[in-house]
Design brief:
Strand content: under 5%
Shape: elongated
Radius of gyration: 18 Å
Number of strands: 0
Order of helices and strands: HHHH
C-alpha cells in the first residue's frame, strides 16, 4: 500500500501576502528600532488618524509610511496635509 504524499501548504493569495508583509514590517519596526520614541509616535498618530478596516487591507502600510512616518518628527500641519492627500486618493 502506497503512503500518500503530504499536501504542500497552501499559498495565500497575493493581497493576503501584501497584508502579511505590511504587518511584519510594522512589528519589526516597533521591536527593532534604535529610535523607539519615534516609532511610538508613529503608532500614536496612526491610531489617532483612525485607519478604517477597509483601508487597512488596501493601503494602510503605504499610508503609515508615506504620510505619518515621513512627517512624524516634523510639523503637525505637514503630517495632516499628507494624511488628507492620501485619504482623497
Amino acid at each position: 500500500m502506497a503512503v500518500p504524499e503530504p499536501a504542500a501548504p497552501a499559498q495565500p493569495d497575493p493581497p493576503a501576502q501584501n497584508v502579511n508583509r505590511e504587518i511584519k514590517a510594522r512589528i519589526d519596526a516597533a521591536v527593532l528600532p534604535e529610535i523607539g520614541f519615534a516609532e511610538r509616535l508613529v503608532w500614536f498618530w496612526s491610531n489617532h488618524f483612525c485607519v478604517s478596516a477597509d483601508f487597512v487591507n488596501n493601503m494602510a502600510g503605504g499610508y503609515e509610511r508615506e504620510a505619518i512616518r515621513a512627517n512624524v518628527l516634523g510639523r503637525f500641519g505637514d503630517m495632516l496635509l499628507a494624511v488628507e492627500a492620501i485619504r482623497r486618493c
